[in-house]
Amino acid sequence: MRSPHLDLTADVVSLTRALVDTPSESGAEAALADAVEGALRALPHLVVDRVGDSVVARTGLGRPERVVLAGHLDTVPAAGNLPARLDGERVYGLGACDMKGGVAVALRIAAGVPRPSRDLTFVFYACEEVESDRNGLRRILAERPGLVADAGLAILMEPSGAGVEAGCQGILTADVVVRGERAHTARAWQGINAAHKAAPVLRRLDEHRAERVVVDGLEYREGLSAVAVRAGVAGNVVPDECVVTVDYRFAPSRSEAQAEAYVRGLFAGYEVRVTEVVPGAAPCLDRVGGLVDALGGRPRPKLGWTDVARFAALGVPALNYGPGDPTLAHTAGEYVPVAHLRACEERLRRWLA
Amino acid sequence: MRSPHLDLTADVVSLTRALVDTPSESGAEAALADAVEGALRALPHLVVDRVGDSVVARTGLGRPERVVLAGHLDTVPAAGNLPARLDGERVYGLGACDMKGGVAVALRIAAGVPRPSRDLTFVFYACEEVESDRNGLRRILAERPGLVADAGLAILMEPSGAGVEAGCQGILTADVVVRGERAHTARAWQGINAAHKAAPVLRRLDEHRAERVVVDGLEYREGLSAVAVRAGVAGNVVPDECVVTVDYRFAPSRSEAQAEAYVRGLFAGYEVRVTEVVPGAAPCLDRVGGLVDALGGRPRPKLGWTDVARFAALGVPALNYGPGDPTLAHTAGEYVPVAHLRACEERLRRWLA
Fold it and tell me: Where is the Peptidase M20 dimerisation domain (chains A, B) (predicted)?
């Protein structure tokens, strides 16, 4: 599609609507990236780079501190929720909540605060909603780390109810494998039914009470869930394998190795194949405390995994701060409250004045 | 393929080899059916009918009793086990055990016993190894029931170790459905994990001790097996449904309704969807006792389901009697012992003399 013109001087509500009305499902962000790049290149105080369909824009004021404002350009697939629609005090439409509202706020800051009190690095990136390999922020950090790594702090504009959600939990995924022996079901006693033998694994999950871990005064409530169970060879065969896939959300105070040891310990006696571990991000309130105060309100722990963990891995403390209720993300009825848009823009402006 | 000539005067071993060497995977029995039909039409004491790729041949001697000798012509797909091979005292090859050896014995009787003491109905049928809808015997019973229903007794030449395996167990298949509520795994406590809640279903299966039911002095050992477990929505979603598919092999003394009530009782409190029930077949030793004596040895219970149940449903008592070890059926290394072939032919000849 032709790249539309984005007017960054327009009100944050109009800008959010314009962003929603430029579809950018993961993998198809080119038109929106073109529009964002064009609008940012028109601003003389920014140096703009492009990496794939991600755009980075930096001030160069020589401030002692540099802060990243980051948001992803992509959305999940449309669900009959286009074009954008303003209904009372809400902007509805695909990505309004996750996270074009946040991108609009960041673009307003880029255009409207040409001499911020901290140097700013804006990152608008592609493919956040899909597998990690395609993630645009990951690609920037891999190919052009210098564009981002010199920051002392990062604000990820993920929907956070216009409040600060600090850090994020880690994720471990593992297959717990229960083995048996095949047999014809007409002579079931000649085999060992792996599905039957999986009962203790599921019972352990059912009885498991996730820990609540306090880090920097924030309570990270963990979770351990079977997300899949698979057994079955044929309709007349006693299955010789049952695989229970578990998803463990762990507090950012645990390392990947600790998370793995925890899961292996829970399922001692079973084969446990860890398929993925991604670390969380500590809230680092000692390093981001001033910002949290400026953005107002008590910080909450972020329970879902977000790209703040990529900044944390880089040594850059990061927090989630953006308009919209995170539980509305990916729903057909997602919206962003106008009040959130205005509050986020206003508080960031004040902090950067 | 061109239909070969079958020489029914040849030795039962040669005939078995010739049958194996005429491939007849389910759905592709035409060439073998043509050969069998041709060979039987050459026998003046038989009246031959064809239904699809199944062949029925009847004597018409006016005997007070009529007996069916039945065998299926089809095999499972080849597994590198063609052509037939005589190795010592065994005939190896696709279908040698299940059940071209049995078909060879029946064909030898058809050709070699022109004036049997009972009227005979030979049924050589297609598509036994595939879904019931395609079963050739089922089709004959549906389209031309008169060809079979006037018999007082049926012998199904399924591999039975050259002994009598009486009756067969029934099969009930059901889905036990455990329900929960979806949630994001980052907030797992907001949902109800259906996989976790399936633990008691699997435990009940694991602790279940199948009954041993004695019918006519034969012990039918039942079985209750999970043959599949399925749960899973996405890698970050608490699943809202877990389905455990159970396979219940029940003694022929139980009706379909009793079998269903038994399974529903075991999983009381869960949604149970019965997807299929096929009744078993009672051994009917009071009605087939003389034949059992003639065929020698103590009858054993048949644990797998066979087409004897179709005869039973018709009111015709039936038993399994054929050469070959049933546990070798469908294996690449299947074979039939020459001693079984000769014993079966010899005992049937004697009984029909």
Answer: 169-265
Give the tens place of pLDDT for each residue, B134-157: 999 999 999 999 999 999 999 999
A78-121: pLDDT as tens digits: 989 999 999 999 999 999 999 999 999 999 999 999 999 999 99
CB B184 within 8 A of CB B171: no
A6 is a domain residue: no
Structure token digits, residue A161: 């109810």
The reply to whether the predicted model has a pTM over 0.90 is no
Is A185 touching B (CB cutoff 8 A)? yes
Same domain, B189 and B97: no
Q: Is residue B212 within 8 angstroms of chain A, CB to CB?
A: no
A175 touches chain B (CB under 8 A): no
Touching check for A228 and chain B: CB below 8 Å? Answer: yes
Q: What is the pLDDT of residues B274-291, one digit of tens each?
A: 999 999 999 988 888 789
Contact A224 B188 (CB under 8 A): yes
pLDDT at position A2: 59
Domain that holds residue A63: 12-167+281-352
Measured between CA atoms, how close is A224 to chain B, in angstroms?
Answer: 8
Instruction: Output DSSP code: residue B256.
Output: H
Q: Is B325 helix (H, G, I), strand (E, B) or coil?
A: coil
ipTM: 0.85
Residue A3 lies in a domain: no
Domain termination site, one of B225, B243, B278: B278
**B residues 68-87 near A, CB within 8 Å?**
none
Please check whether residues A78 and A134 belong to one and the same domain: yes
Partners of B200 on chain A (C-beta within 8 Å) are 199, 203
Contacts of A221 in chain B (CB under 8 A): 189
Burial class (CB in 10 A: 0-12, 13-18, 19+), B258: middle
Residue B30 and residue B163 share a domain: yes
Q: Nearest CA to B135 among B334, B317, B306?
A: B306
Q: How far are the Cα atoms of A3, B94, B336 from residue B84, in angstroms, in the given order?
A: 71, 7, 11
Distance from CA of B193 to the nearest CA of A (A): 7
User: What pLDDT was estimated at residue B296?
Assistant: 80
The pLDDT value recorded for residue A230 is 98
* Other C-beta atoms lying within 10 Å of the C-beta of residue A298: 10
